[in-house]
UniProtKB/TrEMBL annotation:
Domain of life the protein comes from: Bacteria
Keyword list, A-Z: Glycosyltransferase, Membrane, Transferase, Transmembrane, Transmembrane helix
Organism placement in taxonomy: Bacteria, Pseudomonadati, Bacteroidota, Flavobacteriia, Flavobacteriales
Residues annotated as transmembrane: 289-308
UniProt GO cellular component terms: membrane
Protein name: GT2 family glycosyltransferase
Pathway given in the UniProt record: Lipid metabolism; sphingolipid metabolism; Sphingolipid metabolism
Molecular function GO labels: glycosyltransferase activity
Length: 334
């Protein structure tokens, strides 16, 4: 029997309110058979207990900005099972699997907890990695599935700003190999202006569908980045195996754009976000584009100058320490 099941993975870190809002939209998806995995790597059990309470019908979403995709709320209880990272996961009898991670090892490691089970299961043909701070349209997943081909290993969505749903966050990203930088494509453009497909170097990690074939041949996500550049690394590894990437222009996902980790413009970006952006920019360049490394270092000098100009002394110091591969003093991660 042909198998078209999709595993949907949400990674939760101390943000159960976002997660249950996302789940309300996910359980309204149409035209694709799916099972949802929520991997919780929070610092305590509050989030996983709240998500359990939501599934049991004792916790409701409050103050959604996109009511049409969240309401009416799903009928409860929603069958679920709770596992721990070291458990053998059995997922044949429920629509929601909760997995409690032992610790927070980053974006890739969290997703890999579920991916390790999925890649060894005969049930799934696709995996959708979806940020928990998103709300999705009913056809967001089916449009991603339609866009896959045997060589199209990763397909991304059109990311739209949750708080400004008329504006595009990005349809994917473009890599500058010389300086190791990347930027979203069509950022800030009106959604109504989205016409023809743009060529992308990588999908935005907040929503990307991966085929089971890609997983089997390319492997899991690279965990050493902790955060940022994982999707770029995955795409490049996939290209070496003959896989390509694109986005599905009719798959619309509303994204809150990582408020919990302080992403955004450099002027307001958290120290945590700034550190991993720079650290992994250098790590990625060394791994795949070593000949461009001198230009990446020039880019770092520009970064340091700009941080000093803005009075971000700690940020500038961190950039210098990263350049010379030195450990930095501790900072509050998230």
């Amino acid at each position: 029997m042909e198998n078209n099941y999709c595993a949907i993975i949400l990674l939760n870190f101390n943000a159960w309110e976002d997660t249950i809002e996302c789940l309300e939209s996910v359980f309204k998806l149409e035209d694709v058979n799916y099972k949802v995995f929520v991997v919780d790597n929070s610092i305590n059990d509050e989030s996983v207990n709240k998500i359990k309470s939501w599934a049991e019908g004792n916790q409701e979403v409050k103050n959604s900005k996109i009511n049409s995709l969240v309401y009416p709320l799903e009928k409860k209880p929603i069958p679920y099972r709770l596992f721990y990272e070291e458990d053998d996961i059995e997922d044949n009898d429920t629509s929601l699997i909760l997995i409690r991670a032992n610790q927070n090892k980053g974006f890739a490691a969290g997703n890999n907890i579920a991916l390790k089970h999925i890649v060894n299961s005969s049930l799934y043909k696709f995996v959708w990695l979806l940020n928990n701070d998103t709300v999705v349209k009913k056809d967001a997943l089916s449009e991603l599935v339609k866009a896959t081909t045997p060589v199209m290993g990763i397909v991304g969505s059109v990311l739209v700003y949750y708080h400004k749903p008329e504006l595009i966050q990005g349809v994917g990203g473009r890599l500058n190999k010389w300086f190791g930088t990347s930027k979203p494509i069509l950022n800030g453009k009106f959604l109504s202006s989205l016409n023809e497909n743009e060529k992308i170097d990588y999908p935005i990690g907040a929503s990307m569908l991966v085929t089971k074939l890609f997983l089997e041949q390319v492997g899991l996500m690279e965990e050493s980045y902790f955060l940022y550049y994982e999707e770029l690394d995955w795409v490049i590894r996939g290209k070496k195996k003959g896989f390509n990437t694109k986005y599905a222009k009719n798959s619309i996902v509303y994204h809150k754009v990582g408020a919990s980790i302080g992403t955004g413009k450099a002027l307001v970006r958290s120290e945590f976000s700034d550190y991993y952006t720079l650290k992994n920019r250098l790590k990625f360049t060394k791994k795949y584009y070593f000949r461009y490394l001198p230009f990446t270092y020039i880019g770092f000098l520009i970064v340091i100058f700009n941080r000093l100009k803005r009075g971000q002394i700690k940020y500038a110091k961190n950039a210098i320490m990263i350049m010379f591969d030195r450990p930095i003093s501790k900072f509050k991660k998230i």
